[in-house]
Design a protein that fits this description.
Elements lengths: L2 E4 L6 E2 L5 H4 L9 E2 L7 E4 L7 H9 L7 H4 L1 H22 L5 H10 L1 H25 L4 H13 L13 H9 L6 H21 L18 H6 L10 H17 L3 H9 L3 H14 L2 H10 L6 H25 L6 H23 L7 H8 L4 H4 L6 H12 L3 H15 L1 H9 L6 H28 L6 H11 L1 H15 L6 H12 L3
Helix pairs in contact: 4-6, 6-11, 7-9, 9-11, 12-15, 13-15, 13-16, 14-15, 16-19, 16-20, 19-20, 19-22, 20-22, 22-25, 24-25
Length: about 500
């Protein structure tokens, strides 16, 4: 069958390693089967504990698709939260005699459909991130292991109680190019959200005026429109802001993103959140999510998932860039003011600037054939604009000039081939991925430094193409050497880290 939906009371599926006595539901012993015996393609859990967690994991290892009862029943919890939080807000109006009880009840009833939409949207996103995380799980096994260790070290997680794999089992999964199952990822997602929530409350998120802008989005439109000045008076204001941000980050970027940013930059959790929120705003990511999800039913699932993962990568890389190029504590408003308008201008120019490229990739052709906007064709280039805007600021020249120099020089040096080779390096191990990311960053820095030198040492009144020719004549010997190294690297079927490191260092000599 396609779907088994459990809406009843009782536990009907266990793992082969478990006994009926361990399950503790004697009334259904005669009905219970093992996860590996379940032949449904998908399981939905409308009841609580219809399967044991080990039964879920066993079923998932056999190829079955499911989450956990907590994920599948989250709509009820979200609905109850909305009811409580709306009543807290409106009861203040009733107490102040600005609203009668009957008016309050009518207003609550009128918002039923919108609250349902808000709840379903949260559940949709939460299930979506489960699918994306499972798609990446083999490559993320080391990240998941490190997150498990962190949660254990902080006393937040008891691994055996949650049936998460031992280190030996995690190593076995890594050797076999396997990752965690959806039920296991669900556990990590829940704990990562709880951890971030606590960190945001401890970091006094309510005192950050930029992050407080997330608060209205929690409430239905009638509340936003009729009681805008009262939202900041909600007794649970900080908790609601933290909830909004935890859901946005967890449901869009997965359980490991905050820990990853902390490890890469030694930043505070609040600054990791500020960088992600600013990156979301600077690149206009919500519009991309909305446009992509509006076409979900018309798209091949692999393409849909790949594009969502590319958006994830944009946010991750942009957040890292912002953390590394701005003083802490970060300010979302300041970063938006510095970069947002310039980045949007560069993004509008990208189609024309990239039009000279010889051919579209197979992935780009798929996007075009699917009828998606040009912005989805350019997702792989979305990391350009931050460097371009910074180059324009530093050189005192226009973003158009900086963008032309950036793209023309990258094309002439053939850096896209180097980027492809770097991206193809092994990355399942955390240290391999760190080395790969470090090499990507070194290439970007080398290119930016070279362009900065070009912009600052050539006549700004000349067209960029002429300035580039002038610069090439002055650096001809270095360019010949770099091209020779690149040709040698490109001649290899799978150039290794050492070869690529040499090529990237050769690029740094050009400036």
């Amino acid at each position: 069958m396609d779907l088994l939906w459990n809406g009843g009371i009782g536990t009907y599926v266990k793992a082969e390693s478990e006994t009926n006595v361990q399950v503790g539901d004697r009334a259904n012993d005669a009905l219970r089967i093992n996860g590996a015996e379940l032949k449904a393609s998908i399981v939905g859990e409308g009841g609580n504990l219809g399967m044991t967690q080990q039964g879920r994991i066993e079923y998932a290892r056999q190829g079955g698709l499911l989450n956990t009862d907590a994920i599948d029943n989250a709509g009820g919890v979200h609905s109850s939260d909305y009811e409580v939080n709306l009543k807290i807000l409106l009861d203040q109006e009733v107490a102040a005699q600005d609203l009668t009880s009957k008016q309050r009840n009518r207003l609550l009833a009128s918002m039923t459909d919108e609250v349902a939409t808000l709840v379903l949207n949260q559940n949709y996103q939460q299930s979506q991130i489960m699918s994306l995380a499972r798609r990446q799980s083999a490559g993320m096994i080391d990240d998941h292991r490190r997150l498990i260790h962190l949660l254990e070290s902080e006393g937040r997680l008891k691994r055996k109680l949650e049936f998460l794999p031992s280190d030996d089992r995690l190593e076995e999964l890594a050797r076999n190019d396997m990752g965690l199952t959806r039920p296991e990822i669900a556990v990590l997602l829940a704990y990562s959200k709880l951890r971030l929530f606590d960190q945001l409350i401890e970091g006094e998120i309510g005192a950050d005026p930029d992050l407080a802008q997330e608060l209205p989005g929690y409430f239905p439109l009638p509340i936003q429109q009729q009681y805008p000045e009262h939202l900041d008076q909600h007794p649970l204001r900080s908790e609601l802001i933290a909830t909004q941000i935890c859901n946005m980050i967890g449901n869009r970027l997965g359980p490991t993103i905050i820990h990853y940013l902390e490890e890469e930059t030694r930043c505070q959790p609040m600054d990791a959140v500020r960088a992600l929120v600013a990156a979301r705003d600077i690149f206009g990511i919500p519009a991309l999510w909305e446009a992509l999800e509006a076409e979900e039913v018309n798209l091949d699932n692999n393409l849909f998932s790949d594009l969502l993962l590319e958006i994830q990568q944009i946010l991750s890389r942009a957040a890292l860039w912002l953390l590394r190029n701005n003083d802490t504590p970060l300010s979302v408003a300041r970063m938006n003011g510095l970069y947002q308008a310039g980045v949007q201008r560069v993004l509008k120019e990208l189609p024309a600037l990239l039009a000279s490229e010889q051919q579209l990739s197979q992935r780009d052709l798929q996007v075009q054939q699917a009828g998606l906007a040009d912005s989805f064709v350019q997702l792989e280039r979305f990391y350009y604009p931050l460097d371009i805007v910074m180059l324009a600021h530093q050189s005192g020249q226009s973003e158009q000039q900086a963008a032309e120099a950036y793209i023309q020089l990258e094309n002439q040096l053939g850096l896209w081939q180097l980027r492809d080779h770097i991206e193809a390096l092994p990355g399942n191990d955390l240290w391999e991925r760190k080395a790969r990311v470090s090499l990507e960053n070194e290439l970007d820095r080398g290119l930016s430094s070279t362009i900065a030198r070009l912009l600052n040492t050539t006549d700004a009144s000349l067209p960029v193409s002429e300035r580039l020719q002038q610069w090439q004549l002055e650096h001809q010997s270095l360019l010949v050497h770099f091209q020779s190294t690149s040709d040698e690297v490109n001649a290899q079927d799978a150039p290794n880290l050492a070869m690529l490191s040499v090529a990237v260092r050769e690029l740094s000599l050009l400036h």
